[in-house]
Every structure is written in C-alpha cells, then in structure tokens.
Amino acid sequence: MPREGEITEADIAGAERLMGLAYTARERVQMVGNLDGQIGSAVARRGLELDNSVPTALRFDPRLPGFEMPRDEGCIVPLPEVPVPEAEADIAFATLPQLAGWIGSGALTSRRLTEIYLARIERLNPHLFCFVTVMTDSALSEADAMDALIAAGHWLGPLHGIPYGLKDLFDTKGTVTGWGAEPYRDRVPEGDARIVTLLREAGAVLLGKTALGALAYSDTWYGGRCRNPWNTEEGSGGSSAGSASATAAGLCAFSIGTETLGSIVSPSQRCGTTGLRPTFGRVSRAGAMALCWSLDKVGPICRGVDDTALVLDAINGADPADRCSIAAPFAYDAEAPIEGLRLGYLPEAFGEGATEIDRAALEAARGLGVEVVEVSLPELPYGSLMNALYAEAAAAFEHITLSGLDDTLSWQDDGAWPNTFRKARFLSAVDHVQLDRLRYLVMQALDGLFGEVDALIGPYMTGPMLVASNFTGHPCLHLRAGFDSLGTRGMSSLGKGKMTAAQPDASGPVHRVPQGISLWGRLFEEGTILSLGRALEARLGVAAERPELPA
C-alpha cells in the first residue's frame, strides 16, 4: 500500500499518456523510487517568484553562421507639398508624410492635430473600446512644446508633433499599464519603456494607451472587446487590437503594436491597416510586458507603407536593456526602383481556400516589373513549434497559474490563456530542447528560400509562414489589398495552432470589410519589402478608403 503522497507506477503510467509516451512495467518500477529529487527541485524553484521583467539567460539570435548585416542606412520619404484640408476628418486620416510636411512648414500645429484626435477619441472610443487610457493633459502639453520648437526654428524630423497611440503593454511612468488583464489593471510603472523615450525624442505626442487582449492574446480586455471600425459587431483582432482599431478609425496618426505570433498582422488584416513586423531584435522591448522572450517583436501600425518606414526609422536601434537587441542599420528610399527584384510565392497559398482578393494581389504584383516565381519550403512539422510558444508564455505568467489569479481573467474558453498555461505545465523539457533544434532547421529553410528570392508574397496565413517566420525572426509587411463582404468573424483557438486568426462565419449580417496581403523579406532588409509594398499599395489603390463611423 503506497504511503500518502508517494509516487506510484500507476501515476507514471498516467503521466505517460499526458506526454504521449509509453514505458514498460520494468522501466516504471525503476523510475518510481527516484523521482522525488526531480520533483523537489522543481517545487523549490517554484518557491522563487520571478517578475515578468526577469529575462531568460539564453538568447535567440535569428542570424545563421555566415550572415552579413546590410550596410546601407537612411530613410528617404518625400514630404508632399499639398494644402491642409478644411475638413478635420481629412486631416485626421492624412498620411504621415502629409502631416509631417504640414507641421514642419507651420501650416498645421501639433496642438490642433492633437485636439482633432482627442475629439475623435472622445466621440468614437465608446463604440470601439480601443483606448484604455487617454492622456489628454500630457498630450496637449507635449503638443504645445513641439509647436514652441517649430516657432523657434527647430524641427526634430517627420514625427515632430505627430500624435500616436501606444499598446498598453509598454510602461509609461505614472500611468497605468495594465496589460489588458484583470490582475494587472492597477499596475503603475515607475519608468518609461525604451520605445516611449525614442518616440519622445523624435517629437511624437503620446495620446494614450491602446487596448490589447489580456496578456497579449485576442481583442478582449478588462474594459470589454475592442471593435473593428469597419464592422463594430466584431472584434478588431488580436492582440494589438486597440492600435489597429484606433489607426483604422483615424483616432491617431499611427500606433505601436507588438507581435509574438500574428499580433500585428492579424489586426491589420481585420482592420485594414498597414502593419510592419520588423526583424526580431531590431526594436528594443525594454519596458514592455514579456510574453515570449525569444519571439516578441515591436512594430508600427499605420495607414500606409511610407508611414511604417518613418516610424521604424525612429524606433530602430540596439539597446543593452534588451538582451535580444541587435544593432542593425535601417535603409529605405521611397523612390528606389524595384525592377529586377525576384518575388516568390507558394503556389498552394493561392489555390483552394484563397480569395479573389488574394489572387488579384498576386496579379497586381506581376505588373510591378518584378520577376514573380514559384517557390517551395521543405516538409517540416512547422506547427509543432507552437509548443515552444506555449511554454514560454506559461513561464512568463506562472504566478497567475499557481496562485489561481488566472481565474480572474474574463476570457476563460478552452483556447484562452488560463487553460493554455495550465496545459503547458505538462509539456516536456526534453521536447522543448528538441523544438529549439527544429527551430534551427526552420531558420535554415527560410534562409534557403530567401536565397532564391528577395521577398515572398501571400495571404498572412500562407502555408507555414505565420508560424515559421515568427520563429525565425524574418520581417513581414501586411497591407490592405481589397474589400470583401463577409459575415461577422470569430476567433480561432490556440489549440488549433493559431493565436489570432479571424475566420469567416457564414451566419449573421454581411459587412464590407478589408482584406490584406503579406510580404516577407530577408533578415534586416525591411527596405525591400517596403519598396515592394509601396508599389503594390499604389497599384491596388485601396489604401485611402475610410470606414463609415458613428456620427
């Protein structure tokens, strides 16, 4: 008769089923007597509560042996000389180059632009739930300071006086940064995230904190569900939900999002924004909530391709406070020719399941003067990498699982974080190491692909690319490609290996909603996909259309 708390052979047999293993009876007998030390070590470590800010000792580096960092540097985007519109909505939806030209020349003040956006937030946020905190007083103060610099003849650059929204997982000194989650809704940081400092130095004006799905998953946070401006009956996608919704609705000039697996491209697909997920390591994550240390990336969400380039130029740079930070130059010339570039596509991405918008985008790309070629990827279990994400995320928020605080989160479905974190406790450490080795094979696979082509085009859920490119750290640009009439869409679950994928729902009313197309590029060569994206944006001609919003 086993003593109370004693591990038995039956316990081991049950654990085998959880782990997908099968040992013999003799092996269980041998194991049963010496598991106590292993378990004791694990329990002892759990007694040390690790703050979310504590990084991992191991660091992910997307560069394979032999990688050579590009040397070109400089962001060149022309600022058009056009008059300031009379209608405030036309000003609100203007591109960053237009706004920069107006503010730099004194034709528009930062104060007026900030007041326009604040008024739109006051009117529309009750419908969209996209802003968690509106920082009215500080925003107006920052705008006045930027106007004073212009009056004194000092222009800080294209983001001078430009108001933006910041995903509420970046620390802002003295202002709640609640990570969208009930256990942290009263969390007030003592300092600013690095990206806040960089944007302040560039002259940008912080309007407030935009909503994110709790702990960077989905579009549901403790204040409700962030809405898609094109169809307020559905969510705006996750997890940079508020950033995409606010930008699409003209509540800010641009916004900042993060992506672990789709959290920039998914809400950009849903809300029709232009999202740029930079190469892993390019932008500092210091002062940001960690979900997955080896996967998290920071990037801009805008209304046009050139806009994303201007923002990336301001936030690019190595930071010793981020252990995965990589020093890399950023180069983009908006007027650089693209003729001669090789653009690849996976044929299965445009076969069954592809939309007419997807195929039209590919045809538009063929008309850009680039060589469009079929490519392929080796057969690998790409989806298995998701278990590595689950393990990192569960480790980042171990405290709420072990303490029971996970029960306070609003979203408790099977695919939501609480259940996923619990299940992750049964992932094997040995399998985790093997997943890291698989990741290296995937890095080699994508490196081989981009040895054949300069960029890849496809729907954002193209084959294995959403998972593969996030785990390899390759950059992705997602831009609006057209519009479709669809029923209200729902969210796929983590259990299906998708964190943020919006799937059509045949039931319910039909809405005209945007759809996009993705461009993937080589490590630290965002300029190439930006140049292709700019040309494609112009050819498709759908970037300027606005959603119909409540009066």
UniProtKB/TrEMBL annotation:
Amidase domain residues: 113-466
Protein name as catalogued: Glutamyl-tRNA(Gln) amidotransferase subunit A-like protein
Entry GO MF terms: glutaminyl-tRNA synthase (glutamine-hydrolyzing) activity; transferase activity
InterPro entries given in the database record: Amidase, Amidase_dom, AS_sf
Source organism: Salipiger mucosus DSM 16094
Keyword annotations from UniProtKB, A to Z: Transferase
Source species taxonomy: Bacteria, Pseudomonadati, Pseudomonadota, Alphaproteobacteria, Rhodobacterales
